[in-house]
Design a protein that fits this description.
alpha/beta; Dehydroquinate synthase-like, alpha domain; binds fe (iii) ion; Rossmann fold; binds NADP nicotinamide-adenine-dinucleotide phosphate; 16 helices; two-stranded antiparallel ribbon
Length: 370
């Protein structure tokens, strides 16, 4: 039995319903002023913002709300957030939202402490000072950003690119699944597919280990029964199912934190940029092909993860083929552009077979070509 693993995830996680209001100690020892980083509406709709501000007011901690984070957050917006953190004298940052505001708040902490880093400089400049401490409160069940040292930002040229490492972890995570109850149905499906993609991509990644594989198996066992339900007509998601999905996204996040992603995520970024597909769907459209590759590269591992899904291989593919669908057409010139771009992408090298940029271009043509 190979039980070797090496796991680094320095954030302290407190979980449970009502956890924000009962975490006064977390906030009070971080300082007297903070910046709340969030999107346009999710923090309000989920109820998380009110729980946070009520708690901060009770503790006499001053706060400023920076709510300019959009989907696929721009590095430049995060840089602006960092400047505001400095100007308002924030001692710490609280990120509230889905993956976009959570990823953005990680970058805001880096920019805030490092005024020499401007916009795309975050991809190249050295981080000279320790980023501000960060508290993350998730409101979607997908990215697992709460537990990874990864921030996916959009560069000045419109391309999504991640930054990662020990400077991009939260100090605390307050995990309350109730904040996901207001997520619209189509976003719930897309984010669940993102979490499923994290579980399977990291499972077959060259960087996986024994522990990350266990997290992947736990995550798929939780997610797949709910994916199956999504294929039924007039499906509604119960609060109990949303609770399961939220924790499953964290379990998949633990796996992702170790293994990272493979070619579906690398290729999916391009579809989000050019066709505005939500992140989860954009990556998941490549998951059936990824699983077929994985079966060739690691048949034993493949059988184990399919077994963890709790259904037959045929049924799994039926569900994925129903849900992982995008109604787009990608012209040949675009596919050629992608072929060049993907040829240097590390997500391909992390994949379990020698599936390369040419194969990615052919797959895109088969799925979306004219
Ligand atoms: P998102 O982009 O954060 O949010 C999608 C939409 O859902 C937004 O309109 C958002 O509103 C809304 N929303 C979020 N929570 C809500 C709630 N509780 N109630 C109602 N509406 C809510 O979606 P996401 O899928 O969680 O994050 C995707 C981003 O994460 C992508 O940029 C992706 O590249 C990145 N990602 C990061 C990692 C990582 O390891 N760090 C992994 C995978 C993906 P607002 O605009 O108001 O916020
Ligand atoms: Fe993802």
């Amino acid at each position: 039995m190979n039980e070797q693993f090496d796991f680094f995830m320095p954030a302290r996680i407190f979980s449970g319903k009502g956890i924000v209001k009962s975490s006064e100690d977390v906030f009070s020892h971080l300082g007297k002023k903070c910046l709340i980083v969030t999107g346009k509406s999710s923090a309000k709709k989920s109820g998380a913002l009110k729980d946070v501000t009520d708690t901060l007011e009770k503790l006499n901690i001053k706060y400023t709300v920076f709510d300019k984070i959009t989907e696929n957050p721009l590095a430049s917006t995060c840089c602006e957030g960092g400047k505001i953190a400095r100007e308002t004298g924030a001692d710490f940052v609280i990120g509230i939202g889905g993956g976009s505001p959570l990823d953005a708040s990680k970058a805001v902490c880096v920019y805030a402490a490092n005024p020499h880093i401007i916009n795309d400089g975050i991809y190249t400049e050295e981080i000279k000072s320790t980023p501000l401490p960060l508290v993350l409160i998730g409101t979607t069940s997908g990215t697992g950003s709460e537990v990874s040292g990864v921030s996916v930002l959009t560069r000045e040229n419109g391309r999504k690119q991640s930054v990662s490492g020990k400077n991009y972890y939260a100090k605390y995570v307050l995990a309350d699944p109730c904040y996901t109850y207001s997520v619209p149905y189509h976003t719930t499906v897309s984010t669940a597919l993102d979490a499923f993609a994290h579980a399977v991509e990291s499972y077959f990644s060259k960087k996986h280990d024994a522990l990350s594989r266990k997290f992947s198996c736990i995550a798929v066992s939780e997610i797949v029964p709910i994916l199956k339900k999504f294929t039924e007509p007039d499906c509604t998601v119960t609060e109990a199912e949303r609770d399961i999905l939220y924790f499953a996204s964290l379990h998949a996040g633990f796996a992702l934190n170790k293994g990272g992603t493979c070619f579906p995520h690398g290729m999916g970024y391009a579809l989000t940029e050019d066709y505005a597909l939500p992140h989860g769907i954009a990556c998941a459209v490549f998951i059936p092909a990824f699983l077929n590759e994985a079966k060739k590269g690691d048949k034993d591992g493949y059988e184990k993860i399919v077994s963890a899904c709790g259904i037959s291989e045929n049924e799994l593919f039926k569900i994925l083929n129903t849900l992982c669908h995008a109604d787009i057409t990608v012209p040949l010139e675009k596919i050629e552009e992608y072929r060049v771009r993907w040829s240097t992408l590390k997500n391909f090298k992390n994949s379990p077979t020698d599936f390369n940029a040419d194969d990615g271009a052919s797959l895109t043509y088969n799925l979306f070509g004219k």
